[in-house]
Design goal:
Length: 100
């Protein structure tokens, strides 16, 4: 979402048991015959994205880009580290509340 490629993201094509990983700049390539493919991209700290990519008959590469967003848990951890905070212990918090 910040316009930067994500290194080492995993690109999976449904029905093909051969995942590829993105390069340092987020670029990836996957040889596929013309057709429609359900492609999933996942990376640590990001929400999974799935979409249909269509490979045409034209010469050259077919582009299929993905936009991954930071997962909520990843964003929370990042904010906590930035402000030197500790995780909230929900059990301890619930024990302090009267009537729970």
């Amino acid at each position: 979402m910040q316009g930067k490629g994500i290194e080492n993201a995993i690109v999976s094509v449904e029905g093909i048991n051969h995942d590829v990983r993105t390069a340092a700049d987020g670029d990836y390539w996957r040889l596929l015959n013309p057709g429609e493919y359900s492609v999933t991209v996942r990376a640590q700290g990001y929400s999974l994205v799935r979409k249909v990519c269509e490979v045409g008959y034209e010469m050259g590469a077919t582009q299929c880009d993905f936009r991954l967003a930071r997962s909520n848990l990843s964003r929370i951890k990042e904010i906590m580290e930035k402000f030197n905070k500790q995780p909230i212990n929900l059990r301890r918090l619930q024990q302090r509340r009267p009537g729970t």
